[in-house]
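Q: What residues go here?
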């Protein structure tokens, strides 16, 4: 093997190890699993954990990361020994962690690695995690969303961990009223309805027959029957069935134009804050332009369990609750994982009368 190839291999393996840390820090489980060969192994005897294959690594990452309050990992370069299409090496790790149940600590560890050259580039054939030092003393710092204290001096703030939020319990009547008031102050129309059946009937009042309507890929719309009402009743110029009939290779521009500027877009959201912000997440981003402002009118149906205090908790809800559920759905329907590749945050509606939020007293969707 020539010197240039050796240098290139070493650089790619270093990038692989850096990508691992970045995927962990960003809680991007599908990307993390893809860094391993299909039968690759992640072993952590100290925990203990042993995951074989990308599916187990993905599922294990979701279980582990759902327990974190915060997690910081730093990786320091170690040795790399090349041997043709395989290699071995070590990386040195420093980590800070606090879990939602209050466990916390600082540790230093070593990853003992085996690498494999594949058609996708270098991948981990095996990572074995060995803890060399562990300190479970209370950590002095805290994640921004958990800082609490009686004064404004950070030095006197306590680092009490926030209790794990419930992302499935319906909001109280007082919370819904607070959300509705905040949304109205931001220029949205907001209505509080009893359930999905009432929202389904309200849609028929808000959307005239014959209007062009785009529906989002939403479990709330599917479970409520609104998706079927729009796309299968023949009463509306339904955009989604039209795009499904267009060849993706030759009609991509037409599809983009159709979904970007319908008369109405009907969707749900991943979270709504008590301060009046709507948060939508998407893998492809195709439905976001219409929600952001491309559609003349927007209607969002929001289950009561999607109410959160603030944007920080909204993002946690997406990562820890909605994404794992959507990932499972995408695997079953499309045969591929989902990801949060695009985020849309609507803090206000500058065009009066454009955006309507139907807040439900019941939980529906995820």
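A:
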């Amino acid at each position: 093997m020539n010197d240039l190839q050796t240098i290139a291999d070493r650089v790619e393996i270093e990038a692989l190890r850096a990508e691992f840390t970045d995927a962990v820090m960003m809680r991007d489980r599908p990307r993390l699993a893809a860094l391993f060969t299909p039968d690759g192994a992640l072993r952590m005897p100290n925990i203990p954990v042993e995951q074989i294959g990308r599916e187990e690594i993905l599922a294990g990452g979701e279980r582990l990361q759902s327990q974190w309050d915060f997690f910081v990992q730093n990786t320091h370069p170690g040795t790399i020994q090349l041997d043709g299409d395989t290699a071995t090496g070590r990386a040195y790790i420093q980590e800070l962690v606090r879990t939602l149940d209050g466990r916390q600590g600082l540790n230093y560890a070593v990853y003992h690695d085996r690498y494999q050259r594949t058609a996708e580039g270098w991948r981990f054939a095996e990572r074995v995690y060995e803890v060399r030092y562990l300190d479970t003393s209370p950590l002095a710092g805290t994640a921004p969303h958990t800082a609490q204290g009686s004064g404004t001096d950070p030095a006197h703030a306590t680092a009490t961990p926030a209790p794990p939020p419930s992302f499935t319990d319906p909001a109280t009547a007082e919370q819904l009223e607070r959300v509705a008031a905040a949304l109205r102050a931001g220029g949205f129309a907001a209505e509080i309805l009893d359930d999905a059946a009432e929202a389904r009937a309200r849609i028929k009042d808000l959307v005239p027959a014959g209007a062009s309507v785009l529906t989002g890929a939403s479990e709330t719309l599917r479970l409520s029957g609104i998706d079927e009402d729009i796309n299968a009743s023949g009463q509306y110029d339904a955009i989604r069935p039209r795009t499904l009939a267009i060849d993706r290779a030759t009609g991509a521009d037409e599809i983009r134009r159709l979904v970007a500027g319908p008369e109405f877009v009907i969707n749900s959201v991943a979270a709504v804050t008590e301060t009046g912000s709507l948060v939508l997440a998407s893998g492809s981003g195709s439905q976001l332009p219409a929600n952001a402002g491309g559609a003349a009118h927007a209607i969002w149906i929001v289950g009561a369990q999607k109410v959160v205090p603030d944007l920080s908790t909204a993002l946690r809800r997406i990562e820890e609750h909605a994404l794992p559920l959507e990932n499972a759905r995408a695997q079953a329907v499309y045969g591929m994982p989902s990801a949060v590749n695009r985020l849309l945050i609507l803090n206000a509606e500058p065009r009066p009368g454009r955006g309507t939020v139907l807040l439900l007293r019941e939980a529906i969707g995820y």
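A: Context that may help when evaluating the design: Confidence is low (pLDDT under 50) at residues 146-163. The two ends are 53 Å apart (CA to CA).
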